[in-house]
Design brief:
Length: 453
């Protein structure tokens, strides 16, 4: 006998019942999908071994059933007819925990999904096609942040991957697809030129470019951050290494192009310790470059690293290797540890700089989605940009649910901010809090954005 029933749907006289177990905490995999025939009064087991079978619905033509699994966070399709009859397959891996699922008059499906942990949960509704494509996303409840403004880049360029503010609070500054670092001067002026990372770039060749083949020549600045004591802006160029430029801007100076004799291949994230001036930065891979991002994500590469640059000695030290696409990095307010995001491992690692655990690392947080940049706020908490996949990867750009997670020093989720207002189902790369506002960046968008409470 079923212990609980979450949904009952009728189609042509047969009831298909999704049984779910009280299984979230135990990781129970004994859920079943069953069919009850009122005419024969027989119950037939269709699927077993489900991770918390919850909602169930039948396709408009009666050829398949969908059943949600709230323990494994997925939706399964069981075929009733056709060549695949009596077999099942993964239909969708939603960005959170799925619950009930309903079909509409057009033959599409609505599924309730809850994203988050503890009390920091964002309820969503996803409208899906019969092929498992996300057609619409709706966030419910009182959302903590709403879209205030988009900071549009100059015509044709894209990819404000990371943002920085100077000591006066001016900016944001950001690197873009054609190799320039731009400074936002307010809505009346917009973005203006501040610096470039490549001494070989020309305006004729590079300005306005979105061509990945030109990035090694034109430059591609990614992570960046100011040293507030000197006014210098440090940045990593994906191809050209660790760079710095003075407060007046201009052509950046290369500080390092290799570590321990091994040339950098794909630098990604950066943070500056305002206490001692140390610069922490990451290399995503020693095998792939930024223009190979899709191949990198599919490769299971684990050649990423975390580095520290000492401006006094001008030396680069390897702190941590063997990382699965190391991207974002952030040092704690007290300088005791640094966090680094591993994109393809869906986790954040903590490397201890001081204390009894100095020079060791540990998993800080496991995530459902892929983390990107990490930024610390004035209270010493961390904002991490998360992209939860909506189904399997689909080049050239996968569909995702973009979120900002605010984390405590000990890895607790304090807040979940869905960022679909500006980005819909496109990826974000950074979430940064300033004066009660969230500044959001994206490697694929033509703008940065501001969210307000």
């Amino acid at each position: 006998m079923p212990t609980a029933i979450s949904e009952v749907q009728e189609y042509k006289g047969a009831l298909y019942i999704g049984e779910f177990m009280l299984a979230v905490q135990t990781g129970d995999m004994t859920g079943r999908l069953m069919k009850y025939d009122p005419r024969t009064q027989e119950v037939t087991e269709l699927l077993r071994g489900l991770g918390g079978a919850g909602g169930v619905t039948i396709s408009k033509d009666g050829s398949f059933i969908l059943v949600t699994e709230f323990v494994t966070n997925r939706i399964q399709r069981f075929w009733l007819k056709g060549r695949k009859a009596n077999t099942s397959q993964l239909f969708l891996k939603p960005p959170g925990t799925p619950d009930n699922i309903k079909s509409n008059a057009r033959g599409e499906f609505w599924v309730a999904v809850n994203i988050g942990a503890g009390t920091a949960v964002v309820p969503l509704g996803l409208r899906l096609s019969e092929e498992g494509k996300v057609l619409q996303m709706v966030a419910f409840g009182v959302l903590p942040f709403t879209l205030f403004n988009k900071l549009q880049l100059p015509s044709s360029i894209t990819g404000p991957e990371s943002l920085a503010f100077d000591l006066k609070g001016e900016g944001p500054y950001t690197g873009v697809s054609d190799g320039r670092v731009l400074k936002y001067q307010g809505p009346a002026v917009g973005f203006t030129d501040f610096a470039v990372t490549s001494p070989n770039r020309t305006e004729e060749m590079c300005d306005g470019s979105i061509d990945p083949a030109l990035e090694a020549t034109c430059g591609r600045p990614l992570g960046l951050g100011f040293n507030y004591h000197t006014g210098d802006l440090y940045m990593v160029d994906a191809y050209l290494g660790l760079m710095v430029v003075g407060s007046s801007g201009g052509i950046a100076t290369q500080l390092a192009a290799a570590a321990e004799g091994i040339p950098f291949r794909f630098l990604a994230g950066l943070d500056v310790d305002q206490g001692n001036g140390m610069v922490y930065f990451t290399e995503a891979s020693t095998r792939f470059q930024l223009r190979d991002m899709q191949e990198l994500i599919a490769s299971n590469d684990s050649t990423g690293s975390l580095f520290r640059y000492d401006p006094q000695s001008r030396e680069v030290r390897v702190l941590l290797g063997g990382l699965s696409v190391a991207v974002g990095v952030a040092v704690s307010r007290d300088g005791m540890f640094v966090l680094v995001a591993e994109l393809t491992a869906n986790r954040i690692r903590r490397f201890w700089l001081g204390g009894p655990k100095a020079n060791t690392s540990e998993v800080f947080m496991e995530l459902l989605g892929k983390p990107s940049n990490i930024k610390r706020n004035e209270r010493g908490e961390f904002w991490v940009a998360i992209n939860n996949a909506l189904g399997p990867p689909a080049p050239p750009e996968s569909l995702v649910m973009p979120l900002g997670l605010r984390l405590s020093n000990d890895g607790r989720v304090l807040e979940v901010a869905p960022l679909v207002g500006a980005y819909q189902i496109s990826a974000i790369s950074e979430v940064q809090e300033r004066n009660g506002e969230l500044y959001v960046a994206s490697l694929v968008a033509a703008y940065a954005s501001i969210y307000r409470t």
